[in-house]
Amino acid sequence: MKLAKTAFILALFNFLIVVAVIVNSKQPEITEINTDTMTPTKTQVKKIVVKEPRTVKTVVPTAAKTAAPAVADAPVVAPTTDNRCIIVVDGARYDVTSFRNLHSGGNIFQCGSDMSAVFHQQHDNSYLARMSQYKI
Predict the structure, then answer these.
(1) Least CB-packed of 30, 63, 68, 107 within 10 Å?
(2) What pLDDT score does 105 carry?
(3) What is the DSSP secondary structure assignment for residue 135, as one 8-state letter?
């Protein structure tokens, strides 16, 4: 019994030493990412500063470049009277009205437009099969 009490007191003493070391230890260095140059730097700050959100550059696939140039921001699909959001990807029309708020990338849909370039920049072709339920 006396041996158990001694072991308990030693364990408690060790625990208190560990806690004291943790409390009094120097703050660890946090790596900060400079979003302008995308290089890591060591600093003694408690937060990572992000200056401005990056914009996504739209890339037009080679096949689309050979087609007749489209007018910028011209609707590809006629606007609907019932406020549905219809987009075009690779020539197929999709009604994404119910999916807009579920999309993991946020509501980035430009209703009534061809979003093929944006789609292929962010997704591989396997996502087209998942979108089949929205195809009209």
Answers:
(1) 68
(2) 86
(3) B
